[in-house]
Amino acid sequence: MNASETVISVREVSKSFKEVKAVQSVSLDIQRGEYVALLGPNGAGKTTLVEMIEGIQQPDAGTISILGKNWKEHSEELHQNIGLSLQETRFIDKLSVMETMRLFASFYGLDQQRIDAVLELVRLTEKKKAYMVNLSGGQRQRIALGIALLNNPKVLLLDEPTTGLDPNARREIWDILFHLKQKYQTTMILTTHYMEEADYLCDRIVIMDSGQMLGRGTKEELLAQYKSGEVIEFAFSKDIVPTQLSGLGQEIEWEEEYRKGKLVVKDIVTDLPVFLARVEQEGWILSSLECRKMTLDDLFVSMTGRSLSE
After folding, report:
1. CB within 8 A of 299, min separation 6: which ones?
2. β-bridge mates for residue 232, sequence order
3. pLDDT per residue over 6-24, tens digit each?
């Protein structure tokens, strides 16, 4: 298999649940060793799409192939080559870490050497005698990831693997996944609503909402294609007339309740002085001011009218 070979191919796939169109005519190709993020809020269709790729759900229309094979004719072979971790994995509380790993390893006929290697990979060797009930949320997620890696999969499918974790636990998962990419050229699809996670881990980002694919590419490509500029965020200590902000930027958002706003400008260096001059001219009093680059969340808001966290 060469580096440019397509490992996952999704063609015009759709799935509905009664009146809800969960996924609508989505097409996607993923190459060997590529990490792709499905980025979007809850209800975007990310999980349904991944479940169809995993073979858990059957598409109403369209085709899916993995390593050149489909689930209908090659399910046993695909199970041997795919590792997956769902949004929530439930374990038997009174089993130890080692007993849990041995249970899942037995499904693949794997030996103790492989179990030890995976525990080292997910950095839980020192916890092998601990009961599952006594593990932290981050440790349980690392066990779930370890189980997904037991069969040394060519394709890894992770559904919201860091949701609910604190920043340190989330970073530990990221480091493990980054190591997998560098050393084993694992191909991965990751669903997330954390834009930082998608940007840090993945080669490409697919933005989804309401079952549709809104855009795809690297963060830089997405921002260049769909949204350009920089952001000035501000708040005032007193109410103002929003129309007085006109002419200050390419795009203006104003939240009257909180007396705060956001300007999208072409260049902060040249446009910030113009904004500050208007503030002085009108006699406004700033309570906060922040200048930054455009983010994926800004892009998502411009595409859908809502934030990734909503």
Report:
1. 207, 215, 222, 223, 226, 227
2. 263, 291
3. 999 999 999 999 889 999 9
Is the CATH code 3.30.70 the one for domain 229-293?
A: yes
Give the β-pairing of 260-265 and 251-255.
Answer: antiparallel
Does CATH number 3.40.50.300 belong to domain 6-224?
Answer: yes
Domain ranges, ordered by start, for the chain = 6-224, 229-293
Structure tokens at 275: 């904004």
Q: Which residues contact 255 (CB under 8 A, 6 or more apart)?
A: 261
Q: Where are the beta strands (DSSP E) in the chain?
A: 6-17, 20-31, 35-39, 61-66, 82-85, 155-159, 187-192, 204-209, 212-217, 230-236, 251-255, 260-265, 286-293
The amino acid occupying position 292 is R
- CB-count exposure of residue 300 (10 Å: 0-12, 13-18, 19+): buried
pLDDT single digits (tens) 243-257? 778 888 778 888 888
Distance CA 157, CA 164 (A): 19
